Protein backbone atom coordinates (compact mmCIF):
# COMPACT_ATOMS: atom_id res chain seq x y z
CA UNK A 1 0.00 0.00 0.00
CA UNK A 2 2.72 2.47 1.01
CA UNK A 3 4.75 1.63 -2.10
CA UNK A 4 1.84 2.62 -4.36
CA UNK A 5 1.17 5.83 -2.44
CA UNK A 6 4.86 6.82 -2.61
CA UNK A 7 4.92 6.15 -6.35
CA UNK A 8 1.88 8.41 -6.76
CA UNK A 9 3.70 11.11 -4.78
CA UNK A 10 6.69 10.74 -7.12
CA UNK A 11 4.45 10.97 -10.20
CA UNK A 12 2.83 14.15 -8.83
CA UNK A 13 6.26 15.66 -8.15
CA UNK A 14 7.56 14.81 -11.62
CA UNK A 15 4.45 16.18 -13.35
CA UNK A 16 4.90 19.39 -11.38
CA UNK A 17 8.34 19.89 -12.94
CA UNK A 18 7.35 22.22 -15.76
CA UNK A 19 10.48 24.18 -16.58
CA UNK A 20 8.66 26.65 -18.82
CA UNK A 21 5.89 27.40 -16.26
CA UNK A 22 7.04 30.94 -15.48
CA UNK A 23 7.22 31.86 -19.19
CA UNK A 24 4.38 29.66 -20.53
CA UNK A 25 2.69 32.49 -22.44
CA UNK A 26 5.97 33.92 -23.69
CA UNK A 27 6.89 30.43 -24.95
CA UNK A 28 3.66 30.21 -26.96
CA UNK A 29 3.96 33.72 -28.37
CA UNK A 30 7.56 33.06 -29.43
CA UNK A 31 6.33 30.01 -31.34
CA UNK A 32 3.84 31.98 -33.46
CA UNK A 33 0.66 31.74 -31.35
CA UNK A 34 -1.43 34.88 -30.89
CA UNK A 35 -3.36 35.81 -27.75
CA UNK A 36 -6.64 35.39 -29.64
CA UNK A 37 -5.63 31.91 -30.84
CA UNK A 38 -4.62 31.00 -27.28
CA UNK A 39 -8.08 32.04 -26.07
CA UNK A 40 -9.73 29.85 -28.73
CA UNK A 41 -7.54 26.88 -27.78
CA UNK A 42 -8.32 27.30 -24.06
CA UNK A 43 -12.04 27.40 -24.85
CA UNK A 44 -11.75 24.12 -26.78
CA UNK A 45 -9.67 22.67 -23.94
CA UNK A 46 -12.29 23.50 -21.28
CA UNK A 47 -15.07 22.09 -23.47
CA UNK A 48 -13.21 18.82 -24.01
CA UNK A 49 -12.43 18.52 -20.29
CA UNK A 50 -16.13 18.81 -19.49
CA UNK A 51 -17.23 16.38 -22.20
CA UNK A 52 -14.63 13.70 -21.40
CA UNK A 53 -14.81 13.84 -17.59
CA UNK A 54 -17.67 11.36 -17.00
CA UNK A 55 -16.79 8.92 -19.85
CA UNK A 56 -13.28 8.57 -18.42
CA UNK A 57 -14.73 7.86 -14.97
CA UNK A 58 -16.92 5.16 -16.49
CA UNK A 59 -13.91 3.64 -18.29
CA UNK A 60 -11.79 3.74 -15.12
CA UNK A 61 -14.38 1.79 -13.14
CA UNK A 62 -14.51 -0.87 -15.89
CA UNK A 63 -10.83 -1.36 -16.76
CA UNK A 64 -9.30 -0.37 -13.41
CA UNK A 65 -7.28 2.49 -11.98
CA UNK A 66 -3.88 1.25 -13.11
CA UNK A 67 -4.73 0.83 -16.81
CA UNK A 68 -6.47 4.19 -16.85
CA UNK A 69 -3.51 5.98 -15.25
CA UNK A 70 -1.05 4.24 -17.60
CA UNK A 71 -3.02 5.33 -20.67
CA UNK A 72 -3.50 8.89 -19.41
CA UNK A 73 0.08 9.41 -18.25
CA UNK A 74 1.37 8.12 -21.59
CA UNK A 75 -0.84 10.63 -23.45
CA UNK A 76 0.35 13.30 -20.99
CA UNK A 77 3.96 12.43 -21.88
CA UNK A 78 3.20 12.64 -25.63
CA UNK A 79 1.51 16.03 -25.13
CA UNK A 80 4.76 17.43 -23.70
CA UNK A 81 6.67 16.24 -26.77
CA UNK A 82 4.10 17.90 -29.01
CA UNK A 83 4.35 21.10 -26.95
CA UNK A 84 8.12 21.20 -27.48
CA UNK A 85 7.69 20.65 -31.23
CA UNK A 86 4.73 23.02 -31.58
CA UNK A 87 4.75 26.04 -33.86
CA UNK A 88 1.54 27.89 -34.68
CA UNK A 89 -2.14 27.31 -33.94
CA UNK A 90 -2.70 23.71 -35.04
CA UNK A 91 0.21 22.12 -33.19
CA UNK A 92 -0.61 23.97 -29.98
CA UNK A 93 -4.25 22.93 -30.42
CA UNK A 94 -3.14 19.29 -30.79
CA UNK A 95 -1.08 19.60 -27.59
CA UNK A 96 -4.09 20.95 -25.69
CA UNK A 97 -6.39 18.25 -27.08
CA UNK A 98 -3.99 15.55 -25.89
CA UNK A 99 -3.69 17.31 -22.53
CA UNK A 100 -7.50 17.46 -22.19
CA UNK A 101 -7.80 13.72 -22.93
CA UNK A 102 -5.15 12.98 -20.33
CA UNK A 103 -6.19 15.43 -17.61
CA UNK A 104 -9.88 14.49 -17.77
CA UNK A 105 -8.91 10.84 -17.31
CA UNK A 106 -6.55 11.48 -14.41
CA UNK A 107 -9.08 13.75 -12.69
CA UNK A 108 -10.88 11.69 -10.05
CA UNK A 109 -8.94 8.56 -10.96
CA UNK A 110 -5.80 9.59 -9.07
CA UNK A 111 -7.59 10.76 -5.90
CA UNK A 112 -9.92 7.76 -6.01
CA UNK A 113 -6.91 5.44 -6.27
CA UNK A 114 -5.16 7.13 -3.33
CA UNK A 115 -8.32 7.00 -1.22
CA UNK A 116 -8.75 3.29 -1.92
CA UNK A 117 -5.07 2.64 -1.21
CA UNK A 118 -5.17 4.23 2.23
CA UNK A 119 -8.61 2.70 2.89
CA UNK A 120 -9.93 6.16 3.72
CA UNK A 121 -7.60 6.37 6.75
CA UNK A 122 -5.53 9.56 6.89
CA UNK A 123 -6.79 10.42 3.41
CA UNK A 124 -6.47 14.15 4.15
CA UNK A 125 -2.78 13.64 4.93
CA UNK A 126 -2.26 11.57 1.77
CA UNK A 127 -4.06 14.12 -0.43
CA UNK A 128 -2.11 17.00 1.13
CA UNK A 129 1.25 15.27 0.46
CA UNK A 130 0.13 14.43 -3.08
CA UNK A 131 -0.75 18.09 -3.74
CA UNK A 132 2.42 19.38 -2.05
CA UNK A 133 4.58 17.05 -4.16
CA UNK A 134 3.32 18.75 -7.33
CA UNK A 135 3.93 22.18 -5.82
CA UNK A 136 7.46 21.19 -4.83
CA UNK A 137 8.09 20.01 -8.41
CA UNK A 138 6.96 23.38 -9.74
CA UNK A 139 9.16 25.20 -7.22
CA UNK A 140 12.15 23.08 -8.25
CA UNK A 141 11.45 23.81 -11.92
CA UNK A 142 11.26 27.57 -11.24
CA UNK A 143 14.61 27.43 -9.43
CA UNK A 144 16.28 25.49 -12.27
CA UNK A 145 14.84 27.82 -14.92
CA UNK A 146 16.07 30.93 -13.09
CA UNK A 147 19.59 29.79 -12.21
CA UNK A 148 20.50 27.13 -14.79
CA UNK A 149 18.32 27.38 -17.89
CA UNK A 150 18.53 31.17 -17.61
CA UNK A 151 15.76 32.12 -19.99
CA UNK A 152 16.49 29.54 -22.73
CA UNK A 153 12.89 29.04 -23.90
CA UNK A 154 13.52 26.08 -26.21
CA UNK A 155 15.57 24.23 -23.60
CA UNK A 156 12.84 24.69 -20.99
CA UNK A 157 10.36 22.97 -23.31
CA UNK A 158 12.74 20.11 -24.08
CA UNK A 159 13.74 19.41 -20.49
CA UNK A 160 10.09 19.24 -19.39
CA UNK A 161 9.67 16.10 -21.52
CA UNK A 162 12.08 14.12 -19.30
CA UNK A 163 10.20 14.15 -15.95
CA UNK A 164 6.93 13.34 -17.74
CA UNK A 165 8.56 10.33 -19.39
CA UNK A 166 9.81 9.12 -16.01
CA UNK A 167 6.33 9.67 -14.51
CA UNK A 168 4.81 7.45 -17.20
CA UNK A 169 7.35 4.69 -16.51
CA UNK A 170 6.64 4.87 -12.76
CA UNK A 171 2.91 4.35 -13.44
CA UNK A 172 3.74 0.86 -14.74
CA UNK A 173 4.86 -0.13 -11.23
CA UNK A 174 1.72 0.70 -9.25
CA UNK A 175 -0.58 -2.17 -8.23
CA UNK A 176 -4.17 -2.52 -9.30
CA UNK A 177 -6.89 -2.40 -6.65
CA UNK A 178 -8.77 -5.66 -6.22
CA UNK A 179 -12.47 -5.04 -6.44
CA UNK A 180 -14.87 -6.80 -4.09
CA UNK A 181 -17.68 -6.71 -6.62
CA UNK A 182 -18.13 -6.25 -10.36
CA UNK A 183 -21.59 -4.74 -10.00
CA UNK A 184 -21.99 -1.15 -11.13
CA UNK A 185 -24.61 1.42 -10.24
CA UNK A 186 -26.81 2.89 -12.94
CA UNK A 187 -25.72 6.47 -13.60
CA UNK A 188 -29.39 7.44 -13.86
CA UNK A 189 -30.02 6.03 -10.38
CA UNK A 190 -27.03 7.89 -9.00
CA UNK A 191 -28.15 11.21 -10.51
CA UNK A 192 -31.64 10.76 -8.99
CA UNK A 193 -30.06 10.20 -5.57
CA UNK A 194 -27.61 13.07 -6.04
CA UNK A 195 -30.35 15.60 -6.89
CA UNK A 196 -32.03 14.85 -3.56
CA UNK A 197 -28.81 15.38 -1.58
CA UNK A 198 -29.01 19.14 -0.91
CA UNK A 199 -26.07 19.04 1.51
CA UNK A 200 -23.73 17.57 -1.11
CA UNK A 201 -24.89 19.98 -3.82
CA UNK A 202 -24.28 22.89 -1.45
CA UNK A 203 -20.78 21.60 -0.68
CA UNK A 204 -19.94 21.50 -4.40
CA UNK A 205 -21.19 25.08 -4.81
CA UNK A 206 -19.19 26.17 -1.74
CA UNK A 207 -16.06 24.51 -3.13
CA UNK A 208 -16.33 26.26 -6.49
CA UNK A 209 -16.95 29.67 -4.92
CA UNK A 210 -13.95 29.36 -2.60
CA UNK A 211 -11.41 27.77 -4.95
CA UNK A 212 -12.28 29.87 -8.00
CA UNK A 213 -12.17 33.18 -6.12
CA UNK A 214 -8.83 32.42 -4.44
CA UNK A 215 -7.39 31.00 -7.69
CA UNK A 216 -8.47 34.09 -9.65
CA UNK A 217 -6.46 36.33 -7.33
CA UNK A 218 -3.42 34.06 -6.91
CA UNK A 219 -3.02 33.11 -10.56
CA UNK A 220 -4.41 35.93 -12.67
CA UNK A 221 -4.76 39.13 -10.62
CA UNK A 222 -1.67 38.92 -8.37
CA UNK A 223 0.65 40.69 -10.82
CA UNK A 224 -1.85 43.53 -11.26
CA UNK A 225 -2.11 43.81 -7.47
CA UNK A 226 1.70 43.94 -7.20
CA UNK A 227 1.76 46.66 -9.85
CA UNK A 228 -0.92 48.64 -8.00
CA UNK A 229 1.11 48.39 -4.79
CA UNK A 230 4.16 49.80 -6.59
CA UNK A 231 6.22 46.60 -6.53
CA UNK A 232 8.91 46.53 -9.23
CA UNK A 233 8.59 43.80 -11.88
CA UNK A 234 12.04 42.49 -10.91
CA UNK A 235 10.50 41.14 -7.71
CA UNK A 236 7.72 39.17 -9.43
CA UNK A 237 9.91 36.09 -9.87
CA UNK A 238 10.89 36.13 -6.20
CA UNK A 239 7.27 36.54 -5.13
CA UNK A 240 6.25 33.66 -7.44
CA UNK A 241 8.84 31.44 -5.75
CA UNK A 242 7.63 32.50 -2.28
CA UNK A 243 4.06 31.76 -3.34
CA UNK A 244 5.09 28.21 -4.28
CA UNK A 245 6.94 27.76 -0.98
CA UNK A 246 3.81 28.86 0.90
CA UNK A 247 1.91 26.33 -1.23
CA UNK A 248 3.90 23.60 0.51
CA UNK A 249 2.02 24.43 3.73
CA UNK A 250 -0.44 21.67 2.86
CA UNK A 251 2.12 19.09 4.07
CA UNK A 252 1.17 20.09 7.64
CA UNK A 253 -2.53 19.51 7.00
CA UNK A 254 -2.34 15.85 8.04
CA UNK A 255 -0.98 16.84 11.47
CA UNK A 256 -3.52 19.64 11.89
CA UNK A 257 -6.45 17.39 10.88
CA UNK A 258 -5.55 15.01 13.72
CA UNK A 259 -6.01 17.78 16.28
CA UNK A 260 -8.96 19.60 14.75
CA UNK A 261 -12.01 18.45 12.81
CA UNK A 262 -12.27 19.04 9.07
CA UNK A 263 -15.30 21.27 9.76
CA UNK A 264 -13.27 23.59 11.99
CA UNK A 265 -10.35 23.77 9.54
CA UNK A 266 -12.70 24.62 6.68
CA UNK A 267 -14.31 27.40 8.72
CA UNK A 268 -10.89 28.87 9.53
CA UNK A 269 -9.80 28.77 5.87
CA UNK A 270 -12.97 30.54 4.76
CA UNK A 271 -12.57 33.26 7.39
CA UNK A 272 -8.91 33.75 6.36
CA UNK A 273 -10.08 34.06 2.75
CA UNK A 274 -12.66 36.72 3.63
CA UNK A 275 -10.17 38.74 5.71
CA UNK A 276 -7.55 38.54 2.93
CA UNK A 277 -9.98 39.65 0.21
CA UNK A 278 -11.20 42.51 2.40
CA UNK A 279 -7.61 43.62 3.01
CA UNK A 280 -6.88 43.67 -0.73
CA UNK A 281 -9.97 45.74 -1.30
CA UNK A 282 -9.23 48.34 1.38
CA UNK A 283 -5.42 48.54 1.49
CA UNK A 284 -3.06 49.03 -1.44
CA UNK A 285 0.16 48.80 0.60
CA UNK A 286 3.00 46.46 -0.35
CA UNK A 287 3.02 44.43 2.87
CA UNK A 288 -0.75 43.95 3.04
CA UNK A 289 -0.98 43.08 -0.68
CA UNK A 290 1.76 40.43 -0.50
CA UNK A 291 0.57 38.90 2.79
CA UNK A 292 -3.05 38.77 1.58
CA UNK A 293 -2.09 36.93 -1.62
CA UNK A 294 0.08 34.50 0.35
CA UNK A 295 -2.83 33.88 2.75
CA UNK A 296 -5.14 33.15 -0.19
CA UNK A 297 -2.59 30.65 -1.48
CA UNK A 298 -2.73 28.91 1.93
CA UNK A 299 -6.52 28.82 1.66
CA UNK A 300 -6.51 27.32 -1.83
CA UNK A 301 -3.81 24.66 -1.42
CA UNK A 302 -5.21 23.45 1.91
CA UNK A 303 -8.81 23.38 0.79
CA UNK A 304 -8.30 20.87 -2.05
CA UNK A 305 -7.11 17.92 0.12
CA UNK A 306 -10.00 18.51 2.54
CA UNK A 307 -12.45 18.71 -0.35
CA UNK A 308 -11.13 15.47 -1.87
CA UNK A 309 -11.54 13.72 1.47
CA UNK A 310 -15.11 14.94 1.90
CA UNK A 311 -16.11 13.96 -1.63
CA UNK A 312 -14.51 10.50 -1.40
CA UNK A 313 -16.30 9.91 1.90
CA UNK A 314 -19.63 10.28 0.10
CA UNK A 315 -18.80 7.35 -2.20
CA UNK A 316 -19.23 3.79 -0.94
CA UNK A 317 -19.61 2.10 -4.30
CA UNK A 318 -17.42 0.31 -6.83
CA UNK A 319 -18.08 3.19 -9.23
CA UNK A 320 -15.91 5.65 -7.29
CA UNK A 321 -14.16 7.10 -10.37
CA UNK A 322 -17.46 7.60 -12.23
CA UNK A 323 -19.08 9.41 -9.33
CA UNK A 324 -16.04 11.58 -8.64
CA UNK A 325 -16.03 12.47 -12.35
CA UNK A 326 -19.67 13.56 -12.10
CA UNK A 327 -18.77 15.80 -9.15
CA UNK A 328 -15.86 17.23 -11.13
CA UNK A 329 -18.04 17.85 -14.18
CA UNK A 330 -20.63 19.72 -12.13
CA UNK A 331 -17.93 21.87 -10.55
CA UNK A 332 -16.35 22.62 -13.95
CA UNK A 333 -19.74 23.73 -15.30
CA UNK A 334 -20.13 26.11 -12.35
CA UNK A 335 -16.56 27.31 -12.90
CA UNK A 336 -17.45 28.35 -16.44
CA UNK A 337 -20.01 30.76 -14.95
CA UNK A 338 -17.54 32.19 -12.42
CA UNK A 339 -14.86 32.65 -15.08
CA UNK A 340 -17.28 34.53 -17.33
CA UNK A 341 -18.13 36.71 -14.34
CA UNK A 342 -14.43 37.36 -13.70
CA UNK A 343 -13.98 38.28 -17.36
CA UNK A 344 -16.82 40.81 -17.22
CA UNK A 345 -15.71 42.40 -13.94
CA UNK A 346 -12.06 42.60 -15.02
CA UNK A 347 -13.13 44.90 -17.85
CA UNK A 348 -14.45 47.33 -15.22
CA UNK A 349 -11.61 47.52 -12.71
CA UNK A 350 -9.27 45.47 -10.52
CA UNK A 351 -11.25 46.41 -7.42
CA UNK A 352 -14.43 45.12 -9.05
CA UNK A 353 -12.83 41.71 -9.52
CA UNK A 354 -11.62 41.67 -5.90
CA UNK A 355 -15.07 42.71 -4.68
CA UNK A 356 -16.61 39.88 -6.72
CA UNK A 357 -14.17 37.41 -5.17
CA UNK A 358 -14.95 38.74 -1.69
CA UNK A 359 -18.68 38.28 -2.22
CA UNK A 360 -18.03 34.71 -3.45
CA UNK A 361 -15.93 34.01 -0.33
CA UNK A 362 -18.72 35.27 1.93
CA UNK A 363 -21.25 33.17 0.00
CA UNK A 364 -19.01 30.10 0.40
CA UNK A 365 -18.97 30.54 4.19
CA UNK A 366 -22.73 31.11 4.30
CA UNK A 367 -23.30 28.06 2.10
CA UNK A 368 -21.08 25.90 4.28
CA UNK A 369 -22.91 26.98 7.44
CA UNK A 370 -26.21 26.17 5.72
CA UNK A 371 -24.98 22.74 4.57
CA UNK A 372 -23.95 21.87 8.13
CA UNK A 373 -27.34 22.99 9.44
CA UNK A 374 -28.96 20.58 6.96
CA UNK A 375 -26.74 17.80 8.31
CA UNK A 376 -27.81 18.62 11.88
CA UNK A 377 -31.50 18.43 10.94
CA UNK A 378 -30.97 15.05 9.30
Summarize the structure.
With 378 residues, this protein is an all-alpha fold.
Q: What overall form do the CA principal axes indicate?
A: globular
Mean pLDDT: 88
Number of strands: 0
* Residue windows where pLDDT falls under 50 for at least 5 positions: none
- Relative helix content: over 70%
The main pleated sheet reads as: none
Query: What's the helix count?
Result: 16
Describe this protein's structure.
This protein is mostly helical and 378 residues long. It is built from 16 helices and no strands.
Describe the protein's topology.
Elements (H helix, E strand, L loop, with lengths): L1 H15 L7 H7 L4 H29 L1 H21 L3 H18 L2 H9 L5 H27 L3 H19 L15 H10 L1 H31 L7 H12 L5 H7 L2 H21 L3 H28 L6 H27 L3 H28 L1
Keywords:
globular, mainly alpha, 378 residues, single chain
